[in-house]
Design the sequence.
């Protein structure tokens, strides 16, 4: 079995997961206490039927009356009702403690996931993260809903039934205990193998999800580079590994089932043999032996459930360690917020390598004055997107610093205003109304403000033409927006958020040439008066900017106005000439 992939997100130890579970459950002590009391009542109620049945056997032997039989039957019925009510109360109150605790953990996990450094996320892979916030949360939740209550009910039944056996007669109790070594032997065989196997199963599923996510997201690129077959082999290998680990787990569990069946047989035989000898020696009654055999038989289901659910709870435990591992990842120390002096951007010695020894940005020194609009141009792979992501604070540079208004970007505070807003080509439409998609950026904006901004960015016409205007529900499964419309809304969010700095990376690329002009007009409005860095693929954007940076091989090789750079006859002049000839 191989260990986790290098770079995978961390997994906590069992002890750390238990500590986190205790911390989260600690706030719900009252619910846990009610649940524990109800489980106790249910456990006691469960003893009534076997004991009373044993008593009926003795009554039958000694010529009991019909009325005593009726009383016994009534007792069994009352105990069944009490047991059912107590179990319902116990399970309900357990959920009242468990569900909020899990919700808190989910929030912590999501919060940590959302604050993962882009580089770290890249290293770990989106699939690993998705399988944690998806599969692992679901597994823990299902286990909390189904497995944990049944496990608790079973453990309580086992404890009370064991005590009941001893209460009947200590020899019968000891006979029942005779099954314990057989169970222990089965568990000692099973446990050391099962934990690592469940962990391997979770990891294999995570790797399979990662391979599938990459395959779906990057299908175009993989095909374009002739890597589709390679990637398909990677998906096949990951799927096969997940399947074979799954088969391995089922095989192990089946063999464990055989061993527990043997333990049940040993225990029941011991109770019957000891009971037989006890009756012969007049030490116990036939009724007591009947009750003991019924009690012991009653253990089969709870013990089976514990064994069966142990599997599930252990698997959920493995998921919990993955959730806790992520939630408790050390957070980079957040610098104390400092007020910015103005809206200038200053990059000093900024370098970046996605892979060690392969720098894609090299010691970039560059400044953007407050309110200045800079367009970044250059060949594919020159480092434009990387520079934009660093200037936006989305990517931590390997070397160098980025300052906004004289303050490190991650500490910048601008009187409650958003320091930097980013619009890239990959725009997400959030599930909700068009209004929701806009007020994300300005929760207090009223419809008049939204309509004014939509008007200013040139989106009012098509928004009002939607079936319900601002109230139209968009996003997955609702009214579909074209990529250009989604981009238009993203650009409208910029003036609503009112940031000091705007970073646009191919933010107007999502359209044909007519649509591109609309988006360019929207971008011009969104960035008016703001410090702006635009990764420009159409050189008309560069021509309209205050200044142009030309990038090549991770460096800013030219910087100046469009006119100056064209006149200088360098790289930009060549690019412009090629663009103008199109
Ligand atoms: N996440 C990543 N992991 C590894 N390498 C990357 C990553 N992103 C970009 N690169 C590499 O870094 C270099 C610079 O990429 P970047 O996207 O910044 O260039 P660009 O000028 O924006 O290119 P384009 O115009 O094609 O978007 C390229 O060689 C690219 O392959």
Sequence:
């Amino acid at each position: 079995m191989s260990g986790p992939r290098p770079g995978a997100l961390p997994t906590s130890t069992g002890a750390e997961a238990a500590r986190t579970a205790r911390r989260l459950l600690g706030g719900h002590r009252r619910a846990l206490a009610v649940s524990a009391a109800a489980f106790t009542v249910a456990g006691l109620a469960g003893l009534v039927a076997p004991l009373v049945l044993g008593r009926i056997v003795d009554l039958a032997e000694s010529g009991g009356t019909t009325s005593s039989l009726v009383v016994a039957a009534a007792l069994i019925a009352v105990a069944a009702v009490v047991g059912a009510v107590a179990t319902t109360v116990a399970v309900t109150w357990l959920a009242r403690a468990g569900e909020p605790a899990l919700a808190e953990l989910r929030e912590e996990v999501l919060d940590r996931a959302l604050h993962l450094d882009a580089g770290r996320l890249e290293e770990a892979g989106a699939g690993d993260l998705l399988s944690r916030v998806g599969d692992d949360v679901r597994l823990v939740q299902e286990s909390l809903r189904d497995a944990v209550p049944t496990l608790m009910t079973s453990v309580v039944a086992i404890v009370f039934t064991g005590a009941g056996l001893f209460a009947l007669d200590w020899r019968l109790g000891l006979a029942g205990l005779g099954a314990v070594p057989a169970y222990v032997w089965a568990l000692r065989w099973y446990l050391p193998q099962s934990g690592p196997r469940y962990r391997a199963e979770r990891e294999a599923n995570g790797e399979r999800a990662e391979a599938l996510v990459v395959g779906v997201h990057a299908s175009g690129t993989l095909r374009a580079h002739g890597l589709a077959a390679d990637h398909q082999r990677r998906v096949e290998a990951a799927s096969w590994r997940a399947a074979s680990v799954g088969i391995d787990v089922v095989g192990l569990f089946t063999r464990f089932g055989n061993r527990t069946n043997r333990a049940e047989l040993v225990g029941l035989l011991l109770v019957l043999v000891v009971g037989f000898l006890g009756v012969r020696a007049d030490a116990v009654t036939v009724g007591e032996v009947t009750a003991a055999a019924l009690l012991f038989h009653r253990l089969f289901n709870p013990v089976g459930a514990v064994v069966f659910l142990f599997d599930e709870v252990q698997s959920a435990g493995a998921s919990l360690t993955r959730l806790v591992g992520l939630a408790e990842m050390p957070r980079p120390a957040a610098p104390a917020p400092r007020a910015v002096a103005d809206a200038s951007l200053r990059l000093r010695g900024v370098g970046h390598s996605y892979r060690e020894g392969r720098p894609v940005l090299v010691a970039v020194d560059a400044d953007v004055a407050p309110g200045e609009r800079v367009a970044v141009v250059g060949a594919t792979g020159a480092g434009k997107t990387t520079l934009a992501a660093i200037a936006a604070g989305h990517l931590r540079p390997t070397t160098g610093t980025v300052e906004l208004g004289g303050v490190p970007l991650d500490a910048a505070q601008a009187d409650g205003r958003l320091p930097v807003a980013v619009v890239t080509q990959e725009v997400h439409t959030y599930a909700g109304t068009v209004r929701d998609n806009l007020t994300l950026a300005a929760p207090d904006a009223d419809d008049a403000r939204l309509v004014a901004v939509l008007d200013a960015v040139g989106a009012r016409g098509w928004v009002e033409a939607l079936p319900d205007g601002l109230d139209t529900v968009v996003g997955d499964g609702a009214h579909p927006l074209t990529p250009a419309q989604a981009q238009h809304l993203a650009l409208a969010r910029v003036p609503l958020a009112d940031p000091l700095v705007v970073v646009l990376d191919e933010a107007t690329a999502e359209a044909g040439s007519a649509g591109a002009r609309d988006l360019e007009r929207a971008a011009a409005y969104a960035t008016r008066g703001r410090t702006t860095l635009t990764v420009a693929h159409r050189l008309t954007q560069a021509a309209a900017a205050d200044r142009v940076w030309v990038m090549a091989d991770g460096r800013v090789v030219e910087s100046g106005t469009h006119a100056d750079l064209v006149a200088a006859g360098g790289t930009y002049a060549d690019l412009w000439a090629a663009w103008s000839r199109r």
